[in-house]
Design a protein that fits this description.
The chain folds into 2 domains: 184 residues, Serine Threonine Protein Phosphatase 5, Tetratricopeptide repeat; 143 residues, no CATH class. With 328 residues, it is an all-alpha fold. The two termini are 17 Å apart. The model has no long low-confidence stretch (mean pLDDT 93). It comes from Streptomyces atriruber. This is DUF4034 domain-containing protein.
């Protein structure tokens, strides 16, 4: 069983992506072009462009690539990712140029969609930008929901992404982030309703079965400081059922090499919190040697401290492995 200290890497188990990330960060984009050209499906394409875009949002390497290959679909989509990430960062920091960056990113989404109409990423990017419209002033951000229990929101954008890649993991997470932005405080009723609706129709193997675990972590984060109540929350019947359903409907149908480290970390955390130690140990093994700081960081006294999050992760993993081995 793995006993080493966990490693954080945005590419996780995707060895090919880890290799090209270093090249891209140092200004070399040819290996990135080759990797994206060879990416076999929309789910992996979405995941890789997201990681790459976030990694180089502070540099001009993608602009240099586009200057040399202006008709490259990969370069255009990655450029869109970079602009969306910059708009998000500006919004979080309250930067005065947020609106200008937002408009630039929206225009890039349109260009990418026109160049590659079958690609879900431009629509996912528009869905990502929807969370900046806190007052839902844009018509497309307050469309009628598909069911009465849901909220007005960017449902057409989600539908366009879903049409191109049904059940796309990032698309549904972006919709969940929109819900959080819409209701930044108070009960998470809308979020719970959304993830229950999304996961109910998802097939076995879909990462949408983990969405309820993310909402539970968000509730955990908002109630920080109430440690005893939070611990009881994780061993409740509903929380345990959600963790076991995610295990059975997602984990048992997937492989670590194609799985999000963030998803695996949330599942390991939920099973550990529910005292399902044997099942949690299976997920910890699948994670090795990686981990994500979230949700472990919310179990610390200083959320955001990666070292403190790693310590909680190690303690939880050791507890699960010990319980799985049994006495003696």
């Amino acid at each position: 069983m793995p006993l080493g200290r966990p490693v954080y890497h945005p590419a996780g188990h995707d060895e090919a992506l880890r290799a090209v990330l270093q090249d891209l960060r140092t200004g070399r984009w040819v290996s990135t072009r080759n990797l994206l050209t060879e990416t076999p499906d929309w789910g992996l394409w979405t995941q890789r462009t997201q990681v790459l875009g976030a990694a180089v949002a502070g540099s001009d390497v993608v602009r240099a690539w586009r200057a040399e290959e202006p008709h490259s679909t990969s370069a255009t989509v990655l450029h869109t990712r970079v602009l969306v990430e910059r708009a998000l960062r500006a919004h979080r920091s309250g930067h005065r140029q947020t609106n200008d960056l937002w408009r630039e990113a929206v225009a890039a989404c349109g260009e990418a969609s026109a160049m590659s109409p079958e690609d879900p990423v431009p629509w996912i990017c528009l869905l990502t930008l929807a969370q900046l419209d806190v007052g839902q002033r844009w018509d497309q951000h307050r469309a009628a929901p598909p069911e009465p229990m849901l909220f007005p929101g960017p449902w057409q954008l989600l539908a366009e992404a879903d049409k191109r890649d049904p059940g796309n993991r990032e698309a549904y997470h972006r919709m969940l982030q929109f819900v959080y932005a819409r209701r930044s405080e108070g009960p998470l009723t809308e979020a719970y309703n959304f993830v229950q609706w999304a996961s109910a129709a998802a097939p076995a193997g879909s990462a949408l079965h983990l969405l309820p675990l993310y909402v539970r972590v968000e509730r955990y984060r908002r109630e920080a400081g109430q440690e005893q109540a939070l611990d009881l929350h994780w061993i409740s019947e509903d929380a345990t059922r959600a963790a076991l359903l995610a295990l059975q409907l997602w984990f048992d149908h997937t492989t670590p090499a194609t799985s999000s480290v963030l998803d695996l970390s949330h599942l390991a955390h939920a099973l550990w919190g529910a005292h399902q130690f044997h099942d949690a140990s299976r997920v910890f093994q699948a994670l090795d040697p990686f981990y994500a700081t979230v949700p472990w960081t919310y179990r610390t006294r200083s959320p955001g401290d990666a070292d403190a999050a790693a310590e909680v992760f190690l303690q939880a993993r050791a507890r699960c492995f010990s319980a799985s081995r049994g006495p003696g």
